[in-house]
TrEMBL record:
Subcellular location(s) of the protein: Secreted, Cell wall
Domain of life: Eukaryota
Position of the signal peptide: 1-23
Statement: the UniProt record of this protein carries the keyword DNA damage: no
The protein's name in its UniProt record: Pectin acetylesterase
Catalytic activity, EC: 3.1.1.-
Length: 416
């Protein structure tokens, strides 16, 4: 039965992924496909009978102008902690790409990443959100919250387009969610961790110090970014696909005013949407969890259809085992770029790192990669234990994997 379930998940992921690839030809990133892929990351056959948690809409948000792209109320899923975790809080910011134009944002507002009308009424809590000690040893009994993502700018925009009936209010959604959770007991937290995956991983970096400032200095506060280290990298045609795309996001959604002044004072706001220019300014302890060959970035930033119109990279993008020597050399250069970016960051004793050499994207909410019998390892330590050791100061974690193909513990994503 378990093998059949695994096969079914792989088939569904493959079908979704093929649609996801095709979608990049529309405005570079028609990100409505990516969220469907990401939704599968949160469900793994390694987790039996996952906890289902209902959606809570933030009733006071509209009065603050904190609304989704379509003007609907934002929301979150909240499972209350107990015992030793009763006053500990884990906030997970949902990912799901971005929108950079009126057209793509208008499309997005008809999905669960642009409107609470389309959000699931309940979602499974797995991985770092699991309530089972055998699946989530350090955070299982914490107050665990998944904040839904319905703005398209990593919870950082503050603008609107009345003609298109679009609200770009990510920053206000962030504050409304935090205010609501503070009223529900987070104000009394003695431990707190802000996390996020993909676009939510970028958001956890952008809002890390703001999160720290919510609490008294006596509260232990740290941040975790999973698959959020998006690089300003040169694509296979020599262009800057992701920089051009982020430029549209920042400009359209009014992100500039909410970016750290320490960065925008000397760099273009678009560059300050890239984590590589932000992490040096983060004062709060931060853990960066990323694969060295981030599949989303390979697909969308390095070798999108716009940069590879003849499809030379198609087979490589779908299955890393089909990459040619020169393609692997290009991808090793991307890994080297990532290591250069985090070099200074890694020297701080308060920060943590786990950079494994896998072809994947997001590893904290997926049970098989977060904590399972065959989870990915660097040395002899998996992701959940590495994050826990870092958060609780049990050990310094600066784990950087050897280059592909040396790691045999990876859960590579391969599509046919």
């Amino acid at each position: 039965m378990r093998n059949l379930m695994s096969l079914w998940v792989l088939i569904v992921v493959g079908l979704v992924f093929s649609k996801w690839v095709d979608g990049f030809e529309y405005d570079y990133f028609n990100t409505t496909e990516l969220p469907f892929l990401e939704s599968l990351y949160g469900v793994s056959t390694a987790s039996s009978n996952p906890l289902l948690v209902g959606l809570t809409l933030i009733q006071g948000a509209a009065a603050q102008g904190a609304v989704c792209l379509d003007g609907s109320l934002p929301g979150y899923h909240f499972h209350r902690g107990y015992g030793s975790g009763a006053n500990s809080w884990l906030i997970q910011l949902e990912g799901g790409g971005w929108c950079n134009s009126i057209t793509s944002c208008a499309y997005r507002k008809k999905t669960r990443h642009g409107s609470s009308f389309y959000m699931e009424k309940e979602i499974p809590f797995t991985g770092i959100l699991s309530n089972k000690v055998e699946e989530n040893p350090d955070f299982f009994n914490w107050n665990r919250v998944k904040v839904r993502y319905c703005d398209g700018a990593s919870f950082a925009g503050d603008s609107e387009d009345k003609a298109a009936q679009l609200e770009f209010r990510g920053q206000r959604i962030w504050w409304a969610a935090m205010e609501d959770l503070m009223s529900k007991g987070m104000h009394y937290a003695n431990q707190a961790l802000l996390s996020g995956c993909s676009a939510g991983g970028l958001a956890s970096i952008l809002h890390c110090d703001e999160f720290r400032d919510l609490f008294p200095r006596s509260t232990k506060v740290k941040c975790l970014s999973d698959a959020g280290l998006f690089l300003d990298a040169v694509d296979v045609a020599g262009g800057r696909t992701l920089r051009n795309f982020f430029g549209g996001v920042v400009s359209l959604q009014g992100v500039q005013r909410n970016l750290p002044h320490a960065c925008t004072s000397h760099l273009d706001p678009t560059l300050c949407f890239f984590p590589q220019h932000l992490i040096a300014h983060i004062k709060t302890p931060l853990f960066i969890l990323n694969v060295a060959y981030d599949l989303w970035q390979v697909q969308a930033s390095l070798a999108p259809s716009s940069a590879d119109p003849r499809g030379y990279w198609y087979e490589c993008k779908m299955n890393h085992a089909r990459c040619s020597d020169w393609q692997l050399k290009f991808l090793q250069g991307f890994r080297n770029h990532m290591l250069n970016v985090i070099n200074r960051f890694s020297t701080s004793n308060q920060n943590g790192l786990f950079i494994n050499s896998c072809f994947a994207h997001c590893q904290t909410e997926r049970q098989d990669t977060w904590f399972a019998d065959d989870s990915p390892l660097i040395g002899n330590k998996g992701i959940a234990l590495a994050v826990g050791d870092w958060y609780f100061d049990r050990a310094r974690i600066k784990a950087i994997d050897c280059p592909y193909p040396c790691d045999k513990t990876c859960h590579h994503l391969v599509f046919k």
